[in-house]
Structures are given as structure tokens and as C-alpha cells.
Amino acid sequence: xxxxxxxxxxxxxxxxxxxxxxxxxxxxxxxxxxxxxxxxxxxxxxxxxxxxxxxxxxxxxxxxxxxxxxxxxxxxxxxxxxxxxxxxxxxxxxxxxxxxxxxxxxxxxxxxxx
Length: 114
Known about the structure:
alpha/beta
């Protein structure tokens, strides 16, 4: 998993949370451009992607990752109601509010629909 967020504290806590739940974090990116570069270099299975980045929006990054094998899970401190249908239209697996992030929440999005 690649964790993309411009706040170092969130990246560190997300890594810790996800690794405690058995997920492997292969890298961290601070903005959209570094996320795209690291996604090409590291080929993560999942990109945990903040929507509000300093250079590109998370939606722009997800669009540019469109041909990659990585699946996108958006995170934000804003509620999902603020994002409307943009998450669905982006092709991402889904959205998790930052204060609800856990390995279990990510795995639930990765699980195939019954």
C-alpha cells in the first residue's frame, strides 16, 4: 500500500494503524506528483489517497493512475457527503473518513462484493 497525504503526522499514524492490522505499507508520498512517481516505481496494490493535496487533487491523481494496477481508496478529513458522487465517478474502491481509518475498513473495501 502507498499512503499519500501532505501531513506527516497522518502518514505516520496511518502507516502504524495499517501495519498493526497486517497490511504492508510500501511507501509514502507527500503530494500528487510524488504519488504518481512512487506508484510507477513501487507498483502498490492499493493507494490510500488524500483528496486535498497541495499540487494535484486526489481525484486528479486517481484519474492519472487509471491505467495502473493499483486500486484507490480515498481518505479525507471532510465527510463523504461533501464529496458527492465524485468518489464513485472516479473509479476508486471507496472513501474512508480519516478519523475512521483502520486496516479493517480498507480490507472491507477490498473484499469482493457478495
